[in-house]
Amino acid sequence: MRELAFQIREATDAIRRVWQNHPTVGIILGTGLGGLAAQIQTEATFDYESIPHFPRSTSVGHTGQLVCGVLEGTTVVAMEGRFHAYEGYSYRQITFPVRVMKALGAELLIVSNACGGMNPHYGLGDIVVIDDHINLMGGNPLIGINDDSLGPRFPDMSAPYDRVLIQRALEIARRENFVAHRGVYVAVTGPNLETRAEYRFLRSIGADVVGMSTVPEVIVAVHAGMRVLGLSIVTDLCFPDALEPVNIEKIIATANAAEPNLRKIVLGVLARERDDARPSRV
Fold first, then answer.
1. Is the peptide bond before 120 cis (omega within 30 degrees of 0)?
2. What radius of gyration, in Å, describes the C-alpha atoms of the chain?
3. Average of pLDDT values for 206-210?
4. pLDDT band of 282, cuts 50, 70, 90
5. pLDDT tens digits, one per residue of 99-126
6. Rounded CA gap, 15 and 50, in Å?
7. CB-based burial of residue 100 (10 Å sphere; 0-12 exposed, 13-18 middle, 19+ buried)?
8. CA dihedral 262, 264, 268, 274 (to 10 degrees)
9. With the C-alpha atoms ordered 251, 252, 253, 257, is the resulting torsion angle positive or negative?
10. 190 and 84 in contact (C-beta within 8 Å)?
11. 218-245 exposure pattern, b = at least 16 Cβ within 10 A, e = fewer
12. Within a 13 Å sphere around the CA of 182, how many CA atoms are in the beta-carbon half?
């Protein structure tokens, strides 16, 4: 962990040499969800390869750059593309950008992903506001000697996703008249998708949706003392008795089609954060 703190400083210093602003929000954009980055009033952009200790994004639909600027009146730093365990990275590497976001000043992390829907009440393109998660990835980014300057040895996970932000996200969906559920996300390693028996098992232990990301980043965000909002787009239906072969192009297209609704939630939450941060008149 001591080495990790040094690496965070190196990465942060490299960004600060180009961009001196202080973000309050970090955003991670998953598969097919990079459209939000285009709305950021960009002040600086970094290819991941140009930042010390950042991995390279190799997944389809992940651009692989850090976008810094202003969104909905809020200074943000956004990952346009993330990293996964199935790419061969360690959980510490996968979550390193969250550490850097925190070091730059971010106190809130908004994380999004494409997922498979196992809850029979969910449909393609529905938004799921993550209420809780199950970690079946077989690893944890906090394993090893703990650096108390980065977070506590045993971070509490009783409410990893901020309950106020969950309610705000659901309220925005109701106001904008699109479907959004509150559900449990289970993370597996991948890269293969699950068998029918595995979907039955995952559903039986309480999961509504399944994916291959997000949980490691959320664990580190909680460890660092950040508030978290997690958002998923259901891009394929995982019903064991009616399972169809998965088409990756269709998954990306579904994510792209539903992205405007996810964008409305993110912008609405940021607007509320901005308003809450303004000093009230006496």
1. no
2. 18
3. 98
4. very low
5. 999 999 999 999 999 999 999 999 999 9
6. 9
7. buried
8. 90
9. positive
10. yes
11. bbbbbbbebbbbbbbbbbbbbbeeeeee
12. 14
| Residue found under tokens 């990756």 | 248
Residue length of the chain: 282
The count of other CB atoms within 10 Å of the CB of residue 24 is 17
Q: Comparing C-alpha atoms, which of 28, 25, 230, 21 is closest to residue 107? A: 25
In this structure, what token pair is assigned to residue 68? 């810094």
**Which value, to the nearest 10 degrees, does the dihedral of the CA atoms of residues 11, 17, 18, 19 take?**
80
In the structure encoding, which two tokens stand for residue 159, read together? 């409410």
Q: Rounded CA gap, 172 and 180, in Å?
A: 9
Look at the block and give the residue holding tokens 């980014």: 141
- Could you give the CA distance from residue 148 to residue 275 in angstroms, rounded to a whole number? 33
In the chain, the DSSP E strands lie at: 25-29, 41-47, 65-71, 74-80, 108-117, 127-135, 180-187, 209-211, 227-237
DSSP string, 85-140: GGGT--HHHHHHHHHHHHHHT--EEEEEEEEEE-STT--TT-EEEEEEEEE-SS--
pTM assigned to the model: 0.95
